[in-house]
Every structure is written in structure tokens, then in C-alpha cells.
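Batch manifest, entry 17 of 40.
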Amino acid sequence: MRYSYKKALAAAVGLSLMISLTSCGKSGESAEIEIPILETSSPVYNTVKAEVGDISEKYYGEASYGVSHEMAASFTRSGQIKEIYVERNKEVKKGDVLCVLRSEEIEEQIDEAKVWLNQAESTYNKLLAKGGVSATELEYARIDYELQKLGYEKLQRELSQYTVTAPCDGTIVMINDRNRELNVNTKVYPDWLCMISDNSQNALSCKMIQKVDSIGYGTRVIITSTVGEYEGYVTGMYQQGEDATAQYIYEIRCDSKDVEGANKFKVCFDVYDKADVVKIPAKAVKTIGERTFVNILVGGVKVEQDIETGIADGDMVEVTNGLVGGEEIIINGE
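Output type: C-alpha cells
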């Protein structure tokens, strides 16, 4: 009897819950459930048209008259140091001996060559004085003398390579002593020994933090001062300092007159001009590994386009392949 009562009670509770849930469902049909939906807007791109026009390869810098010309005194052969006379801030004159390498072996060869030369010369002179000698014998003696003389002079030139001299008047500003001390018996190889600052050649000079291969002797330079604009050209190029921290000096001459104004001048190296090329802003060009491309806008869709580039003028870059002009180039976004 009790068991039947409990079953009836459970059934009543279950029915009550079903009615309650059904009522909730009907109530939900009449009430609107609001779910927030995030609406996204289309991306906005800044674009410019790829244009066809003229472009110049140009590099910009600052020049002054305060940069001294530097020249290197160098070893032209390997050897062991016998004598060395270099130290920083030392004043030297052109031709001063800076370093001498051991040369005992070649000096012995020179002594031997001198003996043969003297003998050949004596033989030739005796035949000339004797007279009655056949033309063939005299010619052989003359040729032998000339050959001995050439051999002796060649050895003398080689001996001069064992001595390093100052290439100009100036001050020793740097010594190539990295990784080793330079003293008697140090083994050296063909390389620069020291840099000498030649204060007599203070030209208008521009320092660059990296070498620009396309700037060479004769490159046209536009010089802007506080007074006006001048035209010059590159007359010298050299490296100043060690490889890791080196700067590259470009000397500039202006034939018309000295550049007037404050001793700081803006310079533009005008390397190369091209007409009727496709050009775009340099900031629009992207690179990934060896790939170079731009993003272009086609029908509102961003599309990557591979390109090949040519010369640049700082702000604009030439496109040699991949664009024909008129394309909408995206200059913002990834």
C-alpha cells in the first residue's frame, strides 16, 4: 500500500514539472530573445597609382671640409719584420721608412746577380775595344749583358717590396695590429700596415656608413649650401676605420668655385637617370626572403603581386617587371 502511494506521488511531481516546462516554452514563443551580433566593416586601404615617369638613382648625405684624406701604407709581400717605426699620432714625411722585412735570401741573389752582371759587362766592353770580332759574337755578348742587367734590376725591384714607406706627409692615425703585436720577427702578409691622415688634401668630403657600389669616380653631385646650389663630381673614395665600424669617404670637387656658406653642405649623388619607367613609393615594396612583391587593390580585394625592381631615388623605386602602370598600390596594411 505504501509503495503504491509513493509511486503515485512521484508521478504527480513529474507531471507538474512537465506542465511547468511546457508553460515556459509557450512563454518563450511570445518573447523575443536578443543575441548581440558584431558587424564588421570592410578594411580601408590607402592607395596610390603606379605611375609612369622619370626616375633618378640618388643618394643623400652631408659633406664638409673637415675630413682629412687618409692613405694606407701597405705590405706588398709576406715576410718577417726586421725593423718597424710606426706609432699612433707620429708625424711622417713621404718616403719615410715605416717597416723593413727580413731579406737575407734575396740580398744573396742580388749579390750573385751583380757578379754575373759585372762579368757580362766586362766581356762585352773588351770585345768592343778589341776590334776584329765577328758581328755575331759581339751581338751574343751584348744580349748576355742586357739579360744580366734586366735580371739584376728585377731583383732590385723585388727588394724594394721588403720596405714599407709613407705614401704622403701626414700623421699616423691607425695601425693594423689587430689579433697580433707588430714587432721584430712578427710574421706579416700582404695587407695595410697603417693609415696616414694627409691634412694637405682637405677636400669637400661626405661620410657614409656603408659603401655605395654605384657611386664611382666622376659621379655627379649636387651640393646645396646656405648660399646656393653647386654642381661637383666624385674625385676620391676610400674606407676610414676598421671593417666592423668603417665609414666610407667620398671626396667631391667643384670646378667652378669653392662652395660658400656654413661648413655643412647637403649633397645629392645623382648616379643615374631613366625616363618613362613604372615607379611606385618605396614604402609599398615588401620582401619575404628572396621574394619581392606589392599589395594591389583589385575590385576591392587585396592581391599580392610579385615584382622586380630597378633603381631608386629614396622615395620612389622603379618596377622593371610585374606592373604596367595605373594599378592601385596599397601603401598601408600588411
